[in-house]
Design a protein that fits this description.
Helix 7 links the parallel strand 6 and strand 7. This protein has 3 domains: 171 residues, Rossmann fold; 151 residues, 3-Layer(aba) Sandwich (Rossmann fold), CATH 3.40.50; 180 residues, Rossmann fold. It has 22 helices and 19 strands. The longest helix is centred in the middle third of the chain and has 22 residues. It is α/β, with parallel strands linked by helices.
Length: 547
């Protein structure tokens, strides 16, 4: 005889799960036992939030599959809530399995018992409990189907511990079939034709690519589209890297100008949220062609003239074919004008990038990181922080064959090491670099212990200005620099913390020492942290918007 935990693991294996993230808990240990049988790696972290974040990153790096976090009951599940919420806003398909007290004592107050399903429902696509051991495989498939279909997102499955440990004869239980649940459809041809007509009639069009493009694996289709039309393309969210940053049609520093001039905006998976001023950054008289995975997203916050629902890559290819049937278009003159703006912006930035000031100018730190990344074209780069990551994203180019990951629109700090754990496990031959703010390091920095235990040579670099800079500057501007509250930290030797955990540490105070320190960190073969003391800038607003 076997038990319910082995059935769960068997279903996970059938779904293509290679790795699960957890923090040891008695309510769920039956699943660990099953994972041993199925050859599924069990990665135990130091905080359940990190387990959920790692599942999020695993899903991002393995399109079409879910990341999995296994959380024990009560505080195990509630500790994971922030990670689940981050995956919810980032549209990451994760499966979170939560423990529960025994079903035969449900609502009697067993250890760590609570209504986890009600907690998870607002931040998941699907949340339910299974009370029959023989149906556990069926419920795993149902959860994964919800996570991956349509607009991806988290699913939560609660399993009482007596159900999980119930004896079962696995040979008598039919395993559900798993398939590719992702959106594959294209929009109706009449809508494709309408969109093609709009593109052909435009004067100053632009493409704004977003996260749904990644979930559609639409990068190659976007490249074909912009090469055929010579339309300038911009990216936000997880669309960064879907079009090579060295591609002549990729633009980064002229977005405001392009939007101001635009008479047509092709929204390829970009939501009109705070990052696009809820549609207000697009001129009132501009036309909008919007591509997304679900009809409910079309026209959100601002009406679209044409909505193309379905797989974004397939719809971009269909749109490209429609334009070619109309004789094609060539917006090279428009692109050339925007390129001049891009070049001017680069020159304006150069003085900060070349600064030799001590303490180190934050932008000089970003340049050092960018210079190092430029020599590593298969690197995974993770942004974990406020100001320093916002500044770094202006300078750092996504490696040619690498990946950029950041929290997404929830703006959660502490994703750095959990994301990195998943990245290094998923792609062991690639280098993984975390760009930290010093505030962000404090949230899940102890996961360096996890990296040491599992022998994962992840490197982080901290921009240490001894402050919550993104909070400090608006406080100073609104209330005065003499009324700062809860914004100041210390120039803590975070490198020594990592050394104490068994890793490698570097402390940098001179700008020319940034790149050599990164080289030594990666050469160490250990999890490593480069701690860079930077200038504390109180004046000037650099942070993101709240409204």
């Amino acid at each position: 005889m076997s038990h319910g935990g082995r059935l769960v693991a068997k279903a996970l294996k059938a779904a293509g799960v290679e790795c699960v993230f957890t923090l040891s808990g008695g309510h769920v240990m039956g699943i660990y036992d099953g994972c041993l049988d199925e050859g599924i790696n069990v990665i135990d972290v130091r905080h359940e939030q990190a387990a959920a974040h790692a599942a999020d990153a695993w899903a991002r790096l393995n399109p079409g599959r879910v990341g999995v976090a296994i959380l024990t009951a009560g505080p195990g599940v509630t500790d994971g809530v922030t990670g689940v919420a981050n995956a919810w806003r980032a549209n990451s398909p994760i499966l979170v399995i939560g423990g529960q007290g025994p079903f035969n004592n449900l609502r009697r107050g067993s250890l760590q018992e609570m209504d986890h399903v009600s907690v998870m429902k607002p931040i998941t696509k699907w949340a339910d409990a299974c009370f029959e051991a023989a149906r556990l495989g069926e419920y795993v498939e149902l959860a994964i189907r919800h996570a991956l279909s349509g607009v991806p997102g988290p699913a939560f499955l609660e399993i009482p511990m007596d159900v999980l440990h119930s004896p079962l004869d696995l040979d008598t239980i039919e395993m559900p079939r798993f398939r590719d649940y992702r959106v594959a459809s294209t929009a109706p041809s009449v809508l494709i034709d309408q969109a093609a007509d709009m593109v052909c009639r435009a004067t100053n069009p632009m493409v704004m690519a977003g996260t749904a493009l990644k979930w559609s694996e639409g990068g190659p289709a976007l490249q074909r589209f912009v090469e055929a039309t010579v339309i300038p393309a911009y990216a936000n969210g997880m669309a960064r890297g879907q079009l090579s940053m060295s591609h002549p049609q990729f633009f980064n520093r002229s977005r405001r100008d392009a939007l101001a001039q635009a008479d047509l905006v092709v929204l390829a998976g970009t939501p009109l949220d705070f990052r696009m001023k809820y549609g207000g950054s697009i001129p009132a008289d501009a036309k909008i062609v919007q591509l997304d995975l679900d009809e409910t997203l079309i026209g959100q916050n601002r009406s679209a003239d044409v909505g193309l629902v379905g797989n974004l890559g397939a719809n971009l290819d269909a749109l490209c074919e429609g334009i070619e049937r109309r004789g094609g278009v060539d917006y090279s003159a428009h692109s050339a004008a925007l390129r001049e703006i891009e070049n001017a912006a680069e020159q304006t930035l150069a003085s900060q990038l070349d600064s030799d000031e001590v303490p180190i100018d934050p932008m000089r730190l970003c340049r050092g990181i960018a210079d190092f990344i430029a020599t590593n074209d298969e690197m995974i780069v993770i942004g974990d922080g406020g100001d320093i990551v916002a500044q770094a994203s202006k300078v750092i180019k996504v490696p040619e064959h690498g990946t950029w990951m950041d929290p997404g629109p929830l703006g959660t700090l502490g994703v750095g090491m959990p994301f990195a754990l998943a990245a290094q496990l998923s792609l062991p031959n690639q280098r993984v670099l975390i760009v930290y703010g010093d505030g962000a390091f404090g949230l899940n920095g102890f996961e360096f212990d996890t990296a040491v235990r599992f022998g994962l040579p992840i490197v982080g670099i901290v921009g240490n200005d001894a402050a919550w800079g993104q909070m400090m500057r608006p406080q100073a501007m609104i209330y005065g620099s003499d009324r700062l509250v809860a914004t100041e930290l210390s120039y803590t030797r975070y490198d020594k913390v990592v050394e104490a955990l068994g890793g490698h540490g570097e402390h940098v105070t001179e700008p020319d020492a940034i790149v050599p320190a990164l080289e030594r960190a990666f050469a160490s073969g250990k999890p490593a942290l480069v701690n860079v003391e930077m200038r504390k800038d109180i004046d000037g607003m650099k942070g993101s918007t709240y409204v």
